Amino acid sequence: MFDRVVNWDRGDRDRLQRFVAELMALDRKSYAGAIRAIRRYVVGTYRIADDVNLAYALFVMSIESLAQEFDKFAPVWADYAHEKRQRIDDALTEAPNALAENVRAAILANEHVAISRLFREFALAHIGPTFFRDEAVGIARPISRPDLMSALQQAYSIRSGYVHHLQHIPRIVSAIPGFHEAIMADGKPTLTFAGLARVARHVINTFIARAPKTDTEEFDWMKDLPGTLQMEMAAESWLSDPRPFDVKSAQKYLSAYSQQVMGWLQQPTRPLNDLRPVLAKIETLLPGLAKPRQRLPLLALYYIFNWYVPEDLRTKRYPPLIEAYESDFKDPSFVSLLAQLVTCQNPDWTLPQTEELHARYFRQRHYAETPQFGRVLEAAFTLQVAEQNRTAGNVARARELLAFAVDACPENADLRSFEASIPSDEVAEIDWHAILLPATRAPLPSEEPPPSPR
User: Which residues of 62-77 are buried (b: 16+ CB within 10 A; e: fewer)?
Assistant: First the structure.
């Protein structure tokens, strides 16, 4: 790449054919890894003209991507950063040996330890003898094997300095005339672009030559087509389908239907799914569930649907079925809270209980076991806790929660207006129904029912 003149010869044709044959024979995982590395390498060559710092990092990353996915290197305690290791060793001085070793093993398991060494060892393991023999012919000051180990460590340090701190590469790396493969920078052997490019090219070629080959392999190529996206189906298309519904998927159904109801409360012309086939399945599943934690998502979905639909569309076992499990809703929980908020009720839990639940929800809102409230209900919950604080005389905390509600639902103009209307010395009553649902009020069962579900 850095030669001033490149002439095609017969040997190049043979090497190209061999390279393509080996590349296409790789198993899918190795092929995908090789292609990613090659792309990083090629993009690095483009960036030399406009950003030498990024170009250098990309060459390093072309090797690093292979090292992190395909190397089985297992770090030991000595690979951990010396300063950190020393502090931990000092803290474990009086601990029993077994406990100390368990702590060290846990630290190694939870951190990316010795990534620099992983990169270096992987690269060296993929440097064959030809790199210092046939391939070195005609190279200006080719890198030696003893210098290569230090130069690889230096290359990774340069890459890390740029990625984490936007530090420039040593100026001498790009400023020195000629295409020498290595120079001394800060007293250490350092690969130039010519040297780093040749190392990366050799490592990638060696990886391709050594990686597992296969004649045939099952592969879902549809998922790999360029320009395609995989997106989750709209809830309206599956909410009424009882076939995939079970205890594990109940929370997904509950979250989707709750947000659908909240959308209808804000725009009453929106349709609601008919969940009666799903509720019929709930009636068959409930007797086999022993724990409230398992029953609650099913009960909440059953409760919310029957709360809103006209009486002639309610299930025959409502409300007796809910009354039979009424105690499941009493203790503070995310699901019980969701059911009460969607039906525009306020839970009667104590302020410490709701404060704890509020803090825990926003810590765990993206956990798999936490139901998704959606922005409006998250703001509603926050405003409900704010009102509890206001009535308890905690005005400062109420204002803090009101501000948090605005931050949690910044697109709601009525919420922003309410915050702006609050005087600096007091807080008026915080009625989240009136603030967040100004166009309509949630009907109670005794009032005019909403449109029939589809």
Answer: bbbbbbbeeeebebee
